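User: What would this chain look like folded?
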Amino acid sequence: MCGIAGIIQSKRTLGNNPKEKLKEILLSMNDEMKRRGPDGSGIQIFDEGEWLVGLSHTRLSIIDLEGGAQPLSSSDNKSWVTFNGEIYNFREIRKKLEREGRTFRTHSDSLVLAEGHAVYQEKILKELNGMFALGIWDTKNKNLLLARDRFGVKPLYYMPLSDSGIVFASGVSTLMKHPGCSKKIDSWSLANYFFSDYIHPPLSILQGVFQLPPGHYFHWDMNGLGERKMTAVSSFYLWQLPDEKDKIFFSKEKEIEVATALRNKIASSVERQLISDVPTGVFLSGGLDSSIIAYEASKLNPQIETFSIGFDRADYDESSYASLLSKQIGVKNINRTISIDDLFKNLHDALDTLDSPLADPSLIPTTILSNLTRQHVKVALGGDGGDELFAGYPTYLAHTYAKFYALFGKGSLHKMISNTLDLIPVFDSYQSLEWKIKRFVQRFDQRPDVRHGRWMSALDWPDVKKAFKHQLGDSPIILREWFGKNSDFILDEPLLFDFKTYLPGSVLSKVDRASMGESLETRPPFLDNDLAEYVFKLDGEFKFKNKTSKYILKSAYRGLIPDEILFRSKKGFGIPLSSWIKGPLNKRLEGIFAHSPLFDHDGPLEKNFFLDLWHKHNNNKIDASRPLWSLIVLDHWRLRVGARI
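Assistant: Here's the prediction, encoded as structure tokens.
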């Protein structure tokens, strides 16, 4: 796991001594990324007439510790790569390339990328099973390839320059080290942030800076006349619902066959992702997904260690389940029990890992877990992706109840029910029953696609529109491609929605930032090409049956994973955010309202709207912890990186 960056810029815009200036900028970018790659760094600069091309890299050494330094080139010096991630099937690709006459001087997966690109150009992307963000400079064809893995595990941002050049990097804060970066917050992106807790590609938090979507690539080309152009962003892989003819439909006979196939594919994925030249462990929350990964990993490496954190409050603690699983499979579980006060003490360190605002509060315990794990190993496997593949969130169950509510919850009756719910007291517990009922009713919509988006959002879109001084559209960018697709609820559709949006935008981003902030590589075995493609073919009844989420996953591991884990309710990595807002974070919010330029005359946000949320939250009228937390995260990030309003 690493940090990558690169610049293509004309010499005339770099001023006197352009090569030294470019090197200085690249070194500054590498310094910003050093926590992503503390084991080494490198820079390579190419002189292309009127242009300079620079690639840079910071390294966390995992595979081929001696020979994997980057940027590195193919054997013919045609393809130079800077790469962040891991290619799990690099050995198979290497054998294929060797049959075609390519030679290899090291054993790294990075070199397989360079040699593969030299032969296949961007077609190599379809061959890759792994997590990656990469930049490859083709010295023969004079073009740059930028690409991001099909799941969106690894981040990649880019910024076109005024001279038609381009800058790219693993993070927004790294791009800000380039003098051409505006550093000005984009208000439209900010509105989408308050809706989702994160910003959906192609937007980023800054004007003129873009995210490359998962499964996409593009080229920056220079032809023989010295003209430059950025090709259209294209997909090398798109997650889509299968055609009816390709679907595997549920039956009791098929259940046994699918459960067996599923176990085999999960085991194969874990085996691929255990490949490493450094010690590897497993995040073990005590939930079903991480327990399955730990179980499969222990079969392949009985000495593997698992890592978990527990809390001194029973309503937040899951460590007993992690302990139960580790004892059953016979591995050592390393657990750190912390207090709620310990969580709060780590708040600022956790927020400092963010290169861009991300308002998932579970970033804090994830950072603590990453810190604990990094003291023992350099790589950790986790259960991310299981909820989105197998319908693990309560939202999917809510759609089932929505069918019945839709029969009578209309018009004035719905309004009366919604108003009555305002009389129910607000509870500070994480996603309380009161919170779920209010969200279900007050964000209900007859159209399943609309209500799913609103249920998943942090601040409902009508409220987001009130929170901003300028006019916003009818819906946030994250929902525009989904609205109006179907009038009937089909489970596969919200699963695909969450898989393509919430998973990369929030879940994977949180784990990447928290773990890389501790220089720890994390790998998600559920996000394996072969496994995920197979699960996408399964009809929704395999995933959600008889109001049971992850039905086929539980069927596959019945008798292997303790029933106490298989059939317990999903808990999540919660923190007491609501009570923090009323307590230790109250002064922080008071300072933001008094001094933040977000609320200045030229600022984008309506102060009175947020003040009203704050006062109602403090008086137990509503739970506004999520939008208020989004405000805290945003202001912390703004101050840390020097972003402008």
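DSSP finds 29 helices and 20 strands in the chain. If you want, I can go into more detail on any region.
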